[in-house]
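Hallway conversation turned thread

IA: we were arguing at lunch whether anyone had actually written out Transport permease protein end to end. Turns out nobody had. So, for the record, here is the sequence (258 residues) and right after it the structure tokens. Reply here if something looks off.
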Amino acid sequence: MSSFSLAVRDSSTMLRRNLLHARRYPSLTLNLLLTPVMLLLLFVYIFGDTMSGGAGRSAYIAYIVPGILLMTIGSTVVGTAVSVATDMNEGIIARFRTMAIHRGSVLFGHVVGSVLQAVISVVLVGAVGVAMGFRSTDATVVEWLAAFGLLVLFALAVTWIAVGMGMGSPNAEAASNNAMPLILLPLISSAFVPLHSMPGWFQPIAQYQPFTPAIETLRGLLLGTEIGDNWWIALAWCLGLSVLGHRWSKAQFDRDPK
């Protein structure tokens, strides 16, 4: 077999391994998935009228769903960091290093498996949003495809970061704590309120982070609002985080065990 065929075979095996783990132990994914769902229910049904500024819950759910979808990705990949840290702590990664398999396949299995789980989680949370009244009637087929592509690319970017966090953590608990910013950053973005409604000193904190341009781009694609420069800033964040996370993860994987 050629080296490419071996890489594909080993990567498929590792992907199947991680999907089987997710299926056998779904509690972690379900617990992380509950966070965006509970926030969606809380902000729409409890705070919706107040947060909408009088426009009503239907207007606010249209505003909040794009941010919740990006938060869902951030929540889901926390499980990836925990899974990678568990593999590192139990010694299976060290065992994989000694086996005659393609080295990149181990990371590939975690990353692709996590992206698939993130996409499924986004679909489930999106279905909850639709059941609550979210509608995107103005989006064209091209805009829907662009929105889906953005979600996948963003999931890929934060997954690589989560893999790096998992490999650099001494145990699963530390990995969960290290990956917590992936859940907290959407809370200080434009997911729940517009940037101009925030205090002036806080606006740069909310603006110059990866979630805000991605949320504004997704919101513009689904609702027809102004996107401006957010689309290329979001893409730059996704590509930059993907490269950084890949290099970080690979460097830790290639490092000789202590």
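OS: looked through it. Residues 57-90 form the longest helix (34 residues).
IA: good, adding that to the notes. The mean pLDDT is 87.
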